[in-house]
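Backbone-to-sequence.
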């Protein structure tokens, strides 16, 4: 690898992070708002079953996109640690591990998404259950997925707060991005605990709190993709450090 390539590796990492993060945003919104929210009727197991079976390809696509999203998010966690560990190694580790904990919880929760389809297709191992019972079980596992999703966002909220702190103090990325991501982290935490404590109230909050989360993460993704880090300030920050 040439000297110039070595010198510019932070910019390459930043570009990759931007690409991965944009996919994560698109895939996450698609799976949650255009698949589960459209197909799952919280109080109607029969309607949910009919929706999933009538749009099975869409349901499978949402699952597949989410798994790839989680894979990319692991890569983002590693890239951000590599870029930001010089700012504060302990907080960079905290941000990475919180993000990985979120990914692990959501990966396990994704089994519930796929389990709903297995239940609705039945099979010899499920012959003891009536169609109505299988429909109810499918809705139950989808509701379980929603609860696990809220749990995962607690960890993601803390990851965003830590990342916001790192960006704000980095010197080679805009302070505004740090503030936006910290605000997004607070919104994730607030809506998640609202979901635990008062689900109906949480539903009314979602449209309001979704906006700062979306704006903050989208701004960060586009900045990393289009602008990256300030290489001169990054080198100045890392001068003399391992």
């Amino acid at each position: 690898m040439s000297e110039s390539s070595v010198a510019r590796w932070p910019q390459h990492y930043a570009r990759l992070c931007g690409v991965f993060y944009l996919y994560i945003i698109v895939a996450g919104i698609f799976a949650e708002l255009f698949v589960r929210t459209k197909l799952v009727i919280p109080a109607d197991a029969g309607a949910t079953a009919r929706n999933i079976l009538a749009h099975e390809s869409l349901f499978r696509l949402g699952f597949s996109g989410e798994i790839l999203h989680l894979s990319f998010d692991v890569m983002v966690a590693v890239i951000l640690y590599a870029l930001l560990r010089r700012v504060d190694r302990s907080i960079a580790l905290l941000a990475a591990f919180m993000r990985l904990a979120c990914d692990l919880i959501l990966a396990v929760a994704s089994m519930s998404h796929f389990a709903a389809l297995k239940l609705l297709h039945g099979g010899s191992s499920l012959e003891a259950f009536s169609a109505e019972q299988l429909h109810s079980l499918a809705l139950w596992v989808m509701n379980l997925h929603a609860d696990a999703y809220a749990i995962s966002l607690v960890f993601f909220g803390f990851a965003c707060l830590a990342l916001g702190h790192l960006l704000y103090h980095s010197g080679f990325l805009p302070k505004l991005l740090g503030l936006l991501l910290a605000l997004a982290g607070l919104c994730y935490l607030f809506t998640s605990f609202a979901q635990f404590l008062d689900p109906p109230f949480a539903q009314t909050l979602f449209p309001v709190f979704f906006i700062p989360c979306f704006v903050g993460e989208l701004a960060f993704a586009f900045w990393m993709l289009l602008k990256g880090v300030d290489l001169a300030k990054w080198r100045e920050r890392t001068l003399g450090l391992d």
